[in-house]
Specification:
single chain; globular
């Protein structure tokens, strides 16, 4: 019900724009269908498919007034390790669908862009799990506003977004286990402040960027900060301080990213590189009751990443791309464990390497043959992996067709 007034307001703003005598619609669409195999630590999964779809009938309402509705969808039948609920979870199949609407008002060299979107993600961890029952299925609703000012020396952009994420199938076991406890006092002590939907969250994001173009380069610097609040996830308590496993305050995360990118075109070669420094600060801790170990700042970390890429684009539509991503994560409060679960004295660090190669070749009209290979290596000083994967090698081979309009 909260979505309706916001969407109606955006439509009203668009309707108030002065319309030209003839409205112009420019449809843009793409679709690819690929098949391939996924390997995790040399274990091969069965041959599966992947599909991506994009459709946007861009609408010009009048001079300086544009409306951009977009649908995008994705299906992945190949296994992969996704970062979910604070760790690497092996998923078998995923699909997502997103609808968004953006209005663009252009005045001289300034642009103003209110926007609203809704997306649904479905995740299957096992083959016999139905799409609607996935533990990590979630819905995201967001709206925001972006302002862009283009000047001779560069372009400034600032934006604000609100988002709400809901996990409909994820609930604490404790919230559904009152009948298991015969001792009411024990249940009340354990369940105090526990909450029911710990992954549901809302957030606010501010982002700023500056792009400039010193020939022959195109460069961009950006900064964003996000406050994410988990209204039903209580902060874990230290048993040495209090009796209840949970405190009365709720989890809040602050996420900051500082990034810089540069690119240069040397026809037919296009070179690009980006660097990012990130920091997540969370007040959430963790208590391991099996080993009676409490850790503060369990979800807090700093990370740095570098992503160089090379693209070869020929006039007939053929493309070849090689990309490399290196990412290093330093957890600030999560301690490394041995294979048997024993805690050490140092925090977890994790290194990711991702190599990606893709190519496409025109075969008929707007149809292209497409192939892709991805190889990911994750290495960590964390050896205990009963809950999440920290160390693995994964690769994916995909081949199929792509259509653009």
């Amino acid at each position: 019900m909260r979505k309706t007034p916001i969407l109606a307001a955006l439509i009203a703003v668009c309707a108030a724009a002065p319309l030209a005598a003839e409205m112009k619609i420019t449809p843009v669409a793409s679709f690819n269908l690929l098949g391939g195999k996924y390997f995790l630590d040399s274990d091969a999964a069965s041959f599966e498919g992947r599909a991506d779809a994009y459709f946007s009938p861009a609408i010009t309402l009048g001079e300086g007034h544009d409306l951009i509705p977009v649908y995008s969808g994705n299906y992945s039948g190949t296994q992969d390790v996704q970062e979910l609920a604070g760790g690497g979870v092996l998923t078998r199949q995923r699909q997502s669908h997103s609808l968004s609407l953006k209005y663009i008002h252009t005045r001289d060299f300034d642009r103003y862009k209110p926007r609203v979107s809704y997306s649904k993600a479905l995740v299957r961890e096992t083959k016999d799990e139905s799409w609607g029952d996935g533990l990590f299925n979630y819905d995201t609703f967001s709206f925001g506003f972006e302002a862009e000012r283009e000047r001779p020396h560069g372009t400034f952009t600032g934006s604000y977004d609100f988002f709400s994420v809901t996990y409909g199938n994820y609930a604490t076991l404790l919230s559904n286990s009152q009948s298991v406890f015969k001792d009411t006092d024990t249940f009340n002590q354990l369940s105090t402040n526990a909450g029911k939907n710990p992954l549901d969250n809302v957030g606010h994001r501010l982002a700023f960027s500056y792009a400039w173009f010193p020939e022959p380069l195109a460069m961009k610097a950006s900064y964003d900060v996000t406050w994410r609040h988990y209204g039903d996830q209580a902060v874990a308590a230290n048993p040495a301080v209090g009796q209840s496993p949970f405190r009365s305050d709720k989890r809040s995360d602050y996420i900051q990213n500082l990034s810089f990118s540069a690119s240069r075109g040397l026809r037919p070669v296009y070179l690009s590189a980006a660097a990012r420094l990130g920091w997540l600060s969370s007040n959430q801790g963790s208590y391991d009751s099996t080993r009676q170990k409490y850790m503060d700042d369990y979800y807090s970390y700093m990370d740095i990443s570098l992503t160089p890429a090379l693209t070869l684009a020929l006039r007939n539509g053929s493309q070849f791309r090689f990309g490399l991503e290196w990412r290093k994560v330093f957890y600030l409060g999560r301690l490394a464990q041995a294979v048997n679960g024993a805690y050490g004295g140092s925090e977890i660090d994790q290194t990711y390497w991702l190599t990606s190669i893709s190519a496409r070749y025109p075969i008929f009209n707007r149809f292209y043959a497409r192939g892709a290979f991805n190889y990911q290596l994750s290495d960590s000083n964390m050896r205990y992996e009963d809950n999440y994967r920290y160390n693995y090698k994964a690769s994916t081979y995909l081949a199929g067709v792509e259509w653009e309009f």
